[in-house]
TrEMBL record:
<protein>
    <recommendedName>
        <fullName>Vanillate O-demethylase oxygenase-like C-terminal catalytic domain-containing protein</fullName>
    </recommendedName>
</protein>
<feature type="domain" description="Vanillate O-demethylase oxygenase-like C-terminal catalytic">
    <location>
        <begin position="89"/>
        <end position="264"/>
    </location>
</feature>
<keyword id="KW-0560">Oxidoreductase</keyword>
<dbReference type="GO" id="GO:0016491">
    <property type="term" value="F:oxidoreductase activity"/>
</dbReference>
<dbReference type="Pfam" id="PF19112">
    <property type="entry name" value="VanA_C"/>
</dbReference>
<dbReference type="InterPro" id="IPR044043">
    <property type="entry name" value="VanA_C_cat"/>
</dbReference>
<dbReference type="InterPro" id="IPR050584">
    <property type="entry name" value="Cholesterol_7-desaturase"/>
</dbReference>
<keyword id="KW-0614">Plasmid</keyword>
Length: 276
């Protein structure tokens, strides 16, 4: 687990004064040196691995054995890249990712934005663990939304694809209202501060040249802050990996695959393995 890459800050907000934060319970500090290089140090003075991608600084307490997962759309010309900022949430980092994968809560938590009654049914969709890349994917996900994006002018049936390329990160591909045939990309990069505390860094790659950046950020923050109230009241706070601890429904296929994938990877930071 310590050998994975984790987001630890926005590059645009970093300077020589640095930023103090934490990673998996370990205090760390990141700063620019006089040559403009990024340094990330642990509390015992070790220089940690560094990667700069998607506008974020990534690091690890261990030695990552592979490069950070790719998001090909990050290199696609014409896209608008939006750093949404950060939200601190008192929950397991795994809970934060799983909540991002759940569409059944849209009409009840994001009412009149991402969902609305009576459009509450989750239609059948496809979930798989893609062995060749070791990622969880959910495809053919469709849901009626009153306002699928800030650029949407009215209610539409939105198509989604969900991708989990790392235990504490998820990438969402959804219908792009101003450019049919393309996908809007919204990613959630989660920094595990502790097993029951995390910083969540949303990031977007959009085809939208009209909406002011402030409005795009406000829209996404509104959605996540609605989620935060739910996340911070979930019991248990850690994500249960024992199938008998929480009873799934047909709409929870992505969550089931995500938990199975975590167990297969022996990823237990932020997880609860047995009932207490």
């Amino acid at each position: 687990m310590i050998d994975d890459w984790y987001p630890v800050g926005l590059f645009s907000q970093l300077d020589i004064d640095g930023r103090k934060t934490a990673l998996m319970g370990e205090p760390i500090e990141l700063a620019l040196d006089t040559h403009g290089n990024i340094n990330v140090k642990s509390s015992d003075g070790r220089f940690l691995p560094v990667c700069l991608r998607y506008g974020h600084i990534w690091s690890s307490l261990g030695k990552p054995r592979k490069d950070l997962f790719p998001i090909p759309e990050a290199d696609q010309p014409g896209r608008r890249f939006v750093d949404v900022g950060v939200a601190r949430v008192r929950c397991s980092p795994l809970r934060a990712v799983e909540n991002f994968l759940d569409i059944a809560h849209f009409p009840f938590v994001h009412t009149d934005i991402l969902g609305a009654e009576p459009h509450t049914e989750v239609q059948d969709y496809k979930v798989e663990i893609r062995e060749e890349v070791d990622e969880v994917w959910a495809t053919q996900v469709k849901f009626y939304q009153p306002q699928a994006a800030k650029s949407a002018s009215g209610g539409i049936t939105t198509e989604y694809m969900y991708r989990v390329p790392a235990p504490t990160c998820s990438v969402l591909y959804k219908t792009c209202p101003p450019r049919p045939g393309e996908w809007d990309v919204i990613a959630l990069f989660v920094q595990p501060l502790a097993e029951d505390l995390c910083d969540v860094w949303p990031w977007m790659a959009l085809f939208d040249d009209v909406t002011p950046t402030t409005d795009l950020i406000h829209f996404q923050q509104t959605i996540f802050l609605q989620d935060r109230s739910i996340l911070e009241n979930q019991i248990p706070r850690l994500l249960p990996l024992d199938p008998g601890m929480e009873i799934p429904t047909r709409a929870d296929l992505t969550s089931i695959a995500y938990r199975r994938w975590l167990k297969r990877r022996h990823y237990t930071y932020g997880a609860q393995l047995v009932a207490q």
